[in-house]
Amino acid sequence: MAARQEVLLASAARIRRQGRAERRWANATLYVGVGIVVAVALVAIFAPLIAPYPPNAQNLINAFQPPSWSHLMGTDNLGRDVFSRVVYAARVDLQIGFITTYVPLTYGVLLGAVAGYFGGWVDTVIMRLVDVVIAFPFLVLVIAILAVVGPGVTGVYIAVLAVAWSMYARLSRAEMLVLREQEFMLAGEALGYSRTRIILRHAIPNLLRPSIVFSMADFVLNILLVAALSFLGLGVRPPQAEWGAMVADGQNFLLNAWWITTLPGAVIVVVGIGLSLVGDGLAERMGERFRLTV
Amino acid sequence: MSNEFESMEEFVNREITRKQLLIRFGGLGAMVATPSLLAACGGGGGSAGGETSTAEAVGGATGKRGGTLTMARPEEPLSLDPIVPSDNGSIYVLYNMFDQLTTINENSTDVVPSLAESWDISPDGTIYTFHLRKGVKFSDGTPMTVDDVIFSLERIFDPKGSAYSFLFGPVKSVRATGDSDVEVQLKGPFAPFLQNLNIFAASIVPKKMVEELGDKFAQQPVGTGPFKLVKFSKGQFVHLARNENYWKADKPLLDEVMIPYVPDDNTRVLKVQAGESDVALNIPYAQIEQLDKQDDIDVEIEEIYRFDGIWLNNAEKPLDDARVRQALNYATDKEAMRQTIYFGNAEIANHMMPKMKYWRSDVEPYPFDLDKARELMGQSSAADGFTVPLVVPTGDVITQQLAQIVKESWSGIGVDVQIQNADIGTAYTNFSNFNYTAGANWYITSDVSAPDELAAIQFDYTAPGGTKSFFTQYNSANATKLIAQAANTLEESVREKAFGDLQQLVMDDAPMVALFFTPARTGINSKVQGFRTVKTAWWPLEDVSLSD
Amino acid sequence: MARFLGLRVLHAIPVVIGITLVAFVLIHAVPGDPIRIMLGGKAPPERIAAVKHELGIDRPLPTQYLDFVGGLTHGDFGESIILRRPVSGVVGERLGPSLFLLGYGTLIAVVLALPLGIVSALRRNRLPDHTIRIVTLIGFAMPAFWLGLLLIRKLSLDLGVFPVSGYGKGFFDHVMHLTLPAFTVGVFLAAMLIRSLRSSLTDVFASEYIEAARARGVAESRVVLKHALRNSSISTITVLAVNLGWLISSAVVIEKVFDIPGLGQLLVDSIYTRDFPTIQALTLVFGLIVIVINLLADFSYALIDPRVRLS
Predict the structure, then answer these.
(1) Is C124 on the interface with A (CB under 8 A)?
(2) H-helix or E-strand containing B64?
(3) What is the number of other CB atoms lying within 10 angstroms of the CB of residue A288?
(4) What span, in angstroms and rounded, lies between the C-alpha atoms of B322 and B331?
(5) What is the ipTM score, two decimals?
(6) Which residues 47-76 of B have a C-beta within 8 angstroms of A?
(7) In Å, how far is C52's CA from the nearest CA of chain A?
(8) SS3 call for C125
(9) Tens digits of residue pLDDT in A227-260
(10) How far is A183 from chain C (nearest CA, A)?
């Protein structure tokens, strides 16, 4: 699969020439993205201050109310305020997104770097493992783990953590294969630095870039994954408010109360756009710094 | 009831309590979407009907002949060999492909002839002689013989091969007494014998084919019923076609029936809306009104024998305390659930089993009364409240909502509900090992109208089979006594009183949380005529026709 | 080339063994008994034992696994516990719709992504680029079942253009039935493709040989078509290869919404009924699909760009 890793590397965004106007545009979209992400983070932090109602407070007489000034996003099938639930769900979703993205990123990048640096049997073992993980049907894993560890988001975490690192390992290994031949790495070896130091201090900072860019998309994918699992009844434990679960549960009422599913769905879309813009913007910026440091 | 039966009273009772439990594992193939976990099938006791019965005239068909009915269904069969399955997905199809010696009339009350044209019962009630209908052929054209009937009966009477042998009591022998006469000798009289012969598992099958094919018979089943199997494609559809050899003149009316397996609720509704399906079963409650508004579609709401409740493990602390269980019943806002989840299409249950024969309307359901609930909790062994894990099948929308309402309202009396999603395989295994505390919205259905069987299964701790009151472990000497009393007599008034008292008793003892009697909800295109769901929840498709 | 392929296949063997072993261990770690599920609560113990014996699932687990692997060597996937039919037949029936959906979805994705990706890269960081990116991001971040339901509402119910659901009979019917689900898959894939096309094309446009081509006075459209597409097809294939294998087992949501008799739904049902042989076979099939797609990807790199060495 070496061929493709070269390709992955080559396909990472790299800017050679850029006009000033273009750069301003690029910065603008980055700032929009950062704005969205920061706003969501703030909403998550100050959820109790922002949400007008407790997220799980039912008011059955008040179910299926369309959006209004007292219920900005309407009420759901149990009379809960959809807006308040969306606000509180930001906490859960950012947490889910963060854990399912950046924990595997950490050891995925490390494993990939080790595989790429040492090569030989270390490389073979790690990359075969990657192949197994990538080719294994994820649903079997999730359902089986859920049946063993019990319900809730823990099962989802375990399943994702067992799988999601593989992509990062591939990305960082591909970078490492190239980096390994770079002068500053060879210089490190010549200076007699330890391999640990070379990998951690010199290589990792330089090979993180594609992984960080990919992680922005991965973040969205992971939230969507939880939504899909909720659709199959395998997501967070109710009545926990979570965007994906809200969309999934609400789709049963799409025909008579569109807002229950549509508005949380719109929130996912907006957050997804924000993260992707950040990812693209970072790719361009880090591209510059990358050239500077090398 | 005639006098001959009095001598068998004691025996009937013994036999009924000896019966094992059957669990009907509803909607297995559709776990992701169907609101069902499990249910039991009951064989009836009681009314054994007259001594001799003769065939009613086989009615001529009405309605146009021909056409293909498409019926979107959230369940699919596990097996089409009548002796094997216990899931509704299989059973309701089997009833359209196979006949039994007897059947039950339209109101699901009395036994009427089917493949047996008539029968005689010896004065002591131990020998039944069935006179088989002549000229009946299997769907492959081979004539049904007395050997086939004997083979089929022996198959179901054998406790080692059949899960349903207990429905027939102590059979001594089965033999032919003529070309079309079969004699079944019982060791003693057994009142529900005739009624139970209607069970799907007692379907008459062709001996030669079953012997040759063995387990593979399920792939190419052949029966005497109105339809024959064209193809069963797992996960996709069941395709049936008219049995040209069907013994009822001019029936069935349809040429073919396609039953696609459509587990997703929305998709089923969309299919019938778009005219891709003529019939869609289990319309989600939230969409009944909207769908009914469409000009060419009617949603039929039909009462069936079904009880939905929250199962409680009465052996677990503090649910062993009746006051706690009563408090939970008081703390459950059934009316709010009825409105928001069922959109008014359910009846609040005043019993803890389906609304069958002898059901009393004057027993009060538990009102929603948090003060009363708190008071009971205060007096109970769990005055400080407790935590209860509540199992909910994954993907079951209705139960999911129900569990959340329960969680909210029980928190008002200091009960912390932990909702636990479990896939149906896991939930079922744990449940049948008594390894659960509470299970939300499990249901129980029945194939017969007499309540003896279900009552024993659900409320008689001593009933053999080891299910200990259908896994609630409810143990009441009074309940056992009342069930015995009812079974001990064929005097209608005594039975009515015993079952009525039992209803009041179990409502008071509250081995579970009574929720609803829920109906069948079917979306039907106006070009479909004669479609109905009988109380035992299947659909006799032989009467259905299509207009242009 | 033959050596390259041979090596790849050799590499795949430990992967396949790993996959089936993990699946076997996992699924047997989960409580639940398929025979009980099939026969119901209180089927006679004798009958349960008999069926188990007949199916050979009363034997020790290692024996069962070895038997499974042994069967594989002569193409025997075992018999479905629930259906009592050879698993190969069951899986075979469902393979077609899944592959069709995947192929059709990929086609839609490529058709959407190529022009949009090129425009995006050519007008990088200008209005068309931003519009395209935002629109595809919406498609990307939209839950699939949600998009699917909306499409059914609008295009099937209101306009009656496509069937609501199902798979149909015959090629044309399949195309009609699978258009909406394939579009749902395609939009998601297209969003990913456009992102990678945009960045790889930007690289290509900036590269010296395109500059040289331009300097030689080669028409802009020819530059784009000849050089840029050839180069960017590699990144397209990469994105497809990474996502397709994953999609086939995850398509269960789309299969459910559109009622398509595919492998995803079969997998979920089989897990729930604990139909071990079917789960085993499916895991293997999914693994093989992923491996084959990866092989094809590696293979096509070499065909497209001779500079990529087959190592």
Answers:
(1) yes
(2) none
(3) 13
(4) 14
(5) 0.77
(6) none
(7) 22
(8) coil
(9) 788 777 777 877 888 998 898 888 888 777 889 9
(10) 23
